[in-house]
Structures are given as structure tokens and as C-alpha cells.
Design goal:
By secondary structure, the protein is an alpha/beta fold. It contains nine helices and seven strands. It starts with 10 loop residues before the first strand and ends with a helix.
Length: 257
């Protein structure tokens, strides 16, 4: 049991890896010996992140737009050209949109659903051959879907597509997990609470003190929290964990009842 949490020598893809939670997970992987591919739509931001992350290990940037099927297929094809096997896929790329209920636009709904749910499903589908090539009964390949506590409880904000998409990710995680476990691919998820990121910056600027009062641990999420959870779900320690979404929120959902 000495090396239960080792992930050294594995190969990972982290979508949305140039910033926020994806960047935190990629950092943890690289610092623990994982060759890591990151992708995002903004090429300048992506290349800057890859240069920074390369200080810790082998990090490669592949620009993509995963909001379209063409983008998903192009990115998956690039990965398959470079790697015969894929040990870890972290489906993290996401978007949000807020608007009053009476004014919520179809364009905003479609943007969020296409990236947060549709691309997650089809990227996993496209990378199945590489994941199957990696997995074994003793050490399955891993798919980690990043959901949100907003998929478990009403966020209290007019982000209707976002909360709906993240609830869908939780259920899709269970469905994929039951279908792929026999292929030696473990599918699990993480539902983060509030972490400092570009997506949450505006909200935290206005309501950080109020939010902290709702978190029993009394602080926001830190990079080690999300990276450690992803490392656990990628390691031998979680080889029998299938179809679960781990809530990572400092106790916020538990305190809400």
C-alpha cells in the first residue's frame, strides 16, 4: 500500500487547463510526474500557461474550441496522433451565463449546454480508444468530470443553464461509469464549491464575506484541495470508486441540509 496515491508516469488531458480549476489540477498532475496536455480556446492564454506549467514537468498546449463537434474531433484527433494511450481525462472546460428568468436567451442556454455537457460526452467518446488502451483491471483509466455544487442545490443566482448543465454532468457521470467500468475505465466527478478563479471573481468581489459565513471550514477552496482530489481519483487508491461525484466545498452543501 506504499504507493497508493502515486500517479507518476501517467498521461493526462485537462480541458480548460489554462486557468482556474483546470490550471490547479494540471499543476498538481505535473508536480507528481504526469505528462499533461492542456487545452483552451484562447491561444495566447494557453501558451502562457503551458510555459509556466512546464517548469514542473512535461506540459503541452493544444488550442481548441470544444464548443463545436468539429473542435472536439480535431482536438481528440491531435491527442490520438501524439499518444497511443491516455490514462486520465479531466473534463473541466466550461462556461456560464447569467440573466433574469424572463430575459434568459436561447443563445446563452445553448452556449453553456454545448460546452458543459455535449462536449464532455463527445470528447470522452472520441478518446475511448486511447482510454481503453490504458486501462487494466488493476489500474483502470480515469475520466474525471468537473461538475459544481450548483448542480446539487439552487445557487440563488439566475444562472439557469449552468446549474442545469452541472446537474446533467453528475447524472452523466453515473451513466458513463456503469457502461465503461467493464472496459477498465473509471468515471467519477468532482463538484467544487467556491474557488478563486476568473469565473467566480465578480461574485467573490461582492459576496466573499457572506459566502465564507456559509462554509463551515471558513475559507475558500485552495489549489491543493482540487489537485489532491483529482490525484486521488487518478490513483490506485480510488480503483474501486465508480460513478461518484465528490463534493469539495468545505461543508457548504452539508450545512445547507
Amino acid at each position: 500500500m506504499k504507493n497508493l496515491f502515486s500517479i507518476a508516469g501517467k498521461v493526462a488531458v485537462v480541458t480548460g487547463g489554462s486557468r482556474g480549476i483546470g490550471h490547479m489540477i494540471a499543476t498538481g498532475f505535473l508536480q507528481n510526474g504526469v505528462r499533461t496536455y492542456i487545452t483552451s480556446r484562447n491561444s495566447g492564454e494557453l501558451e502562457a500557461a503551458a510555459r509556466e506549467l512546464s517548469e514542473y514537468g512535461e506540459c503541452f498546449a493544444i488550442q481548441s474550441d470544444l464548443s463545436s463537434m468539429d473542435g472536439v474531433k480535431a482536438f481528440a484527433g491531435e491527442i490520438r496522433q501524439r499518444e497511443d494511450r491516455l490514462d486520465i481525462l479531466v473534463n473541466n472546460a466550461g462556461a456560464t451565463w447569467g440573466a433574469p428568468l424572463d430575459e434568459y436567451p436561447e443563445s446563452g442556454w445553448d452556449k453553456v449546454m454545448n460546452l458543459n455537457v455535449k462536449s464532455l460526452f463527445f470528447l470522452t467518446q472520441q478518446l475511448l480508444p486511447a482510454l481503453r488502451a490504458s486501462g487494466s483491471p488493476e489500474d483502470p483509466a480515469r475520466v474525471i468530470n468537473i461538475s459544481s455544487i450548483n448542480g446539487l442545490a439552487n445557487p440563488g443566482m439566475p444562472t439557469y443553464a449552468y446549474s442545469s448543465s452541472k446537474a446533467a454532468v453528475i447524472h452523466l457521470t453515473r451513466h458513463l461509469a456503469s457502461d465503461l467500468a467493464g472496459d477498465n475505465i473509471n468515471v467519477n466527478g468532482i463538484a467544487p464549491g467556491f474557488f478563486p478563479s476568473k469565473m467566480t471573481a465578480g461574485l467573490l468581489d461582492q459576496f466573499e464575506e457572506k459566502m465564507l459565513r456559509r462554509i463551515p471550514r471558513g475559507r475558500l477552496g485552495q489549489p491543493e484541495d482540487i489537485a489532491g482530489t483529482a490525484i486521488y481519483l487518478s490513483s490506485q487508491a480510488s480503483a474501486w470508486v465508480v460513478g461518484q461525484t465528490l463534493v469539495l466545498d468545505g461543508g457548504m452543501i452539508a450545512a445547507a441540509g
